[in-house]
Every structure is written in C-alpha cells, then in structure tokens.
C-alpha cells in the first residue's frame, strides 16, 4: 500500500501506535499536542542534538534493510547524547517522504529506530510528516545531565590520556563491502558513568572517524594530540577482512566513521572506575595522549594522517 | 557561489556567524559540541516541537523571497511554543540542500529565520547540514513553561468560551494570489500571558485553518463546539479582496491556515486580563463556545463546514 492511500494522518497514527509502548519517566505530555512537555530533575540541564538521515546519502535499501537503516539513525542521534554523558528523555522525528512510497517500508525504518529508542527508554514525543521527493529522517534527541557534569569537547588539557571505548573500523568496512548489518550501540550508559567520574576532560563519539573526531576535540580544547595507531582497538580479523575487501586497514581505522564508540581524555593516571555491569562488558583502551602543538599520528603507515586534521571523515559537499 | 564551493563546514561556519548575535539566557553550552545544553528555571517543564519546511511544498521562491520563506518557517515553529504558553529557549536547524544551490539563497532563507528567532530571543543551538536533492528546513524549538501552567489542547469543557487572538484568512488569501508577503508573528507573549491567567482550558495555534484546528482541539478535549462565522475576525477589506481573487471569503476564513493566531477556550465569563503592553495591541475576539456533541458552524453559507472536521486544512498526502 502506498502512503497516499493511508494519508498523512494515517501514517502518523501508525507511527504513534508503533511508538506507544516506549515509556519515559520524563514525559509530562506526550505526542499529539502543539508541543510535548518533558520534565528533567532538579539541577539537571537539557541536552539537545539534531541529526539527519537522507536516502541515498546516509542509507540505501540495496545496502541494508529498512530496519537496519532506522536502527542506525536512532543510534547515531542517541550517540550524541552519550558523548555528553546525558540520559535520554525523548526524541522527535521529522519525516519527509514521497506519497508514492510503500507504507510498510517507511514503517519498517521507523520501527527499526523505535527498537533502539526503546532499548534506551527514549520515547517518541513529537514530530512531523511532510511530502517530499526525498526520503529523510530528521531526528532531535533530548537528554538530561546533572549541571556541571556534562562531558564536552572543550576541556581537554595537554597530558590528559586518550581512551577509546571499543573497536573502530567495522562500520567503514561494512560500507566498503556494500552491505551494512552491524548497528553500533549508542554508549549511553558508558557516557553517564564517565560523566559521574568527574575526571573526563573531553569526550566525543566517533561518528566522522577517529582522526576527524579527535581533530574536533583538539580544536575545541585548544590542544594537540599524539595518537598511537597500533593501539587502536579493532574487530577480530580486521586486517584480513580489509585485505579481502581491497582496503587499507589503517585508512578504515583512522578515517572510517559511524562506530559510535566514545573517544575521551582523562585527567590523571589512575584507572577509570566503571560500575560493575559496565566494567564486565567494556574495555577502555588507551590510544594516546593530548599534547601541545598539532595532531601527531604515531606508528602508522602515513598517508591518511596528513588529511586527517581538516578533511578526514565524511563531508556532504 | 555554489554550496559545493564553500563545503559543508563552510556553510555551517557562515550560519554560525549569522546566528552568533542571538543570545539566550538559557544556553549553558551553545552550538558546536555533540549536543547543546539548555538550562530551564526550577519548576519549569521543557516544551519541544518539530516542524518541516520543504521547497515546493511549504515554500516556493517564485511566490516569496528567501527571507520571507525563512521567516515563515521560524514563525510556524515558534507558534507551537506560543500555543503551549512556553517561552523560547533555543532551536535547532537540520538543513537538507543540494550542493549545486547558491550559497547566498540558502543563507538568505536562514537569515530570515534568524530574524524571527532574534525577535523572540531564541538562539540557534545546534543542527545539521546534509546533501539532498530536496531543499528542506527541519526545525525543532525548545521552550520552558512553569509546571502545571502549560496550555494544551485537551482541557476544554462544554460551556467554555472560544476566542481568537486576531484575524484569520490573510495567509490563505496571499497563497491564493500566488504571492506571500505577510509573515504572521508567533504569539509568544500572548501565549505566556494566557498561561498565567490559569483560566485558559485549551489552546491551539491556527496553522491548518480555524475549522481543522478547532476540530483538533475538540477531539483532544472530547467536546464539540459552536463556531460563529460572522464573528470571525478578518483583515480589513477581506471580502472584496477575496472576490477580486475569485475566492469564497468563508472558505479562506474557515479552511485557510498559517495565520498563527491562537484559538483558545476560557473557563467562566469574566474578561481575560492581559498585561497593559499586550492589551494595547491585542483584541481577543469571542467566536463561539465549546459544547457537547459535534462541531457546529453557525451563520455561514455552508459547504466548507461539512468537510471541516476531518479534511479541512492542508494535508500532505
């Protein structure tokens, strides 16, 4: 069935029905009014981030299922809350789509996104549906973080140690092969735990690629860094898989994006204490150090590093 | 100059520069990090609303200037905060646009929007830029409203009096003539004042058209209404202008949207007291009453009324 057969309100109703089971403790007024009302706790700031997913640019149905596309969209948006150390309160979805598209395909994308939202208790609280020649999801996520505890990009200082929360390069390898199956988890629980340590000076999620995102962090903090390529965590069998795909492992490690691991700097040399349930599943891998001066890539083959500071990662035009 | 010549980050930089002068007292961390941080006052809820503006659907450059298109986009989004009685805290802009579009035209749209944002002290706190074949602005506005004071659609009761905050039909008439010049003001100050009276049982902004929006309000409140067509406020010379444009005045009054006046119901018969600065510029016009049963249109010519409950106003598909 085509969208034009169910109509704008028919589509909205179906989306609302799919979203209804996701409850959020912060929702004072949910979907359906002129605006939703969210209630943070006393002493919390509201984190807000917007992201877009455009067919043909961010997702392609010949590379991945509608469900995977939707999961990736929500994961990417919630990952920005994770990088701030915020807990999700809710999100809005502004959907553009052509009236001649199949209802089931559009709903499958939305359903994929709602799965990830449900996993993080992040209810859909509003949005919009518009006719367009382009199929686009524009997502805005709201979170809450205790005042003064938010992780930002700007607090890094020379000498702070750099860590990665998990392997990078997997998403880029899948894209290189033209089939996307793995959807990274937004590191919500880890971001909150890191915020609570009070020792993380700067944090970013790896969306553009390690090198580009490290450059963002360094620029915001007004520092340089030394990144040790051999220590970058990578998936098991990564080098062999890259060679089979005809790609240079180092390029995918440094410039591949959308892994959504957290890249962060820590004051002092004491180990980071994580709550037991996180410590059991998460390895925080030291990958370098913040420093004065520029961004130095150590132990690599060269080539990628030079382009990393300004042009690493994905650019839209 | 084309967008592809300045690049994604070049465009983002230019937008940031245009937006820099808009300060908001609630911004703890502005544009440029993974998320922005907004700080409401103790006892306030966060209102959040998303809206989309798609070229060819919501705006056309042969009908209006880029500046007017941008102003209308922000006005429509902030109007949803007005309808909740919220004060604006900030907004995000997720922009889709083709790399071969002119930078100046895109920036003129954004600049128009920022004018309206500045008028309401609503800073740009984040967003996204994506390549797309479609030119789209997806806006999310955040506001704050004292807990328990928010206006919603659902509190209307039989016997409550219906008011409009100003004339309707002007935007529909301009669209009918194919040239859009007038940009309605979002009724932010009025919405906040109405919320403070504690006597407004339900409120909606006229975006889809009086009849469609009244139907939304009635459905949410579980009531009917009697709307008196002759009392609907309209622009000076409206009937004659409609006839010149070959349009039925009643149709544009009842089904024309995008006027962004507030349509609201009031408990009791005492007049609504507005602060002096608002009282001097605003007439609250009684246009009907909430009632049991259906939605009745009184004193009109008929024709529009029948279609009003379900299909009045704009539909996307």
Q: What percentage of residues of chain A falls in helices of 4 or more residues?
A: 25-40%
Ranges of chain A where pLDDT stays below 50 over 5 or more residues in a row are 306-313
Give the strand order of the largest sheet of chain A, numbering strands 1, 2, ... along the chain. 8-10-7-11-9-12
- One letter per element, helices H and strands E, the order of chain A comes to HEEEHEHEEEHHEHEHHEHEEH
Number of helices of chain A: 10
Structural class of chain A: alpha+beta
Q: Which topology of the largest domain in chain A does CATH recognise? A: Phosphoribosyl-aminoimidazole Synthetase, Chain A, domain 2
Beta-strand percentage range of chain A:
15-25%
What's the architecture of the largest domain in chain A, going by CATH?
A: Alpha-Beta Complex
Rg from alpha-carbon coordinates of chain A: 20 Å
Span between N and C termini of chain A? Answer: 35 Å
The coarse silhouette of chain A is: globular
Number of strands of chain A: 12
Query: Which chains make the largest contact?
Result: A-B, 71 and 71 residues
Largest sheet of chain A: 6 strands, mixed
The whole-number mean of residue pLDDT values of chain A reads: 94
Query: What's the level 1 CATH class of the largest domain in chain A?
Result: Alpha Beta
